[in-house]
Amino acid sequence: MKESEVTAALLHPGGLWRDIQVVARTGSTNTDLLARARSGEAEGAVLVAEAQTAGRGRMSREWLSPPGAGLYFSVLLRPAGVSPGLLGWLPLLTGVAVVSALPGLGIAHARLKWPNDVLAADAKLAGILAESTGGAVVAGVGINVTQQPVELPPAATSLALAAGAAAPDRQTVLIAVLTELARWYQAWRDQPQPGDPDACGLREEYTRQCGTLGREVTVSLPAGRMLAGRAAGVDAAGRLEVVTAEGVTAVSAGDVVHVR
Asked: What CATH class does 213-258 carry?
């Protein structure tokens, strides 16, 4: 991946991205950008790693990052004016950006799994992890690009497998996703009520792209509790609304399994 070409494609006056770095290897792009955020760095930084040695997903799971096979990057955002109660939309927004970029890359059937996995034919194609520090949020994205079945964990896929043809190169994927991420983020942030998911169309688009809604699910909640019911919607804070015999429960964090 050529840092100069990515920079030329994405950095422009008035744009979101202001600094893009590509490194051969790091522990975790999220960890690195969180440290930079705590040092006061402005939003718009992007860190891409050819390989991660300590990548992680939600709930501290390891994210396997073999060199050159996938796309691993994080972005630093400072959503000024957005209330804390709406920051839960950032990982969902990032998922919308990934899915929005995929049709142009030959993947027309990707869907979102709440809160922030990207699936193709019910197999995991990409994962997203958003972490905050102070007023900053770092969103990390890992996308399987060229991996073949032997290189993937169970129930996972890659762009190469999902497209049924040669996968686009990782640089093309990065530019496409960051272009969509900037478009959705600026629309969500830069409006009369910053962070409003309805006024900018974000909740409507997430609902349209989400394959979890309308399905029977089980949700593993914190402290080991389980919730079973029908995923009916996403509320104004980005929480999953699960309908059970007792009523509607809004879930802000949990592992979702699609039952049917």
From this structure: mainly beta
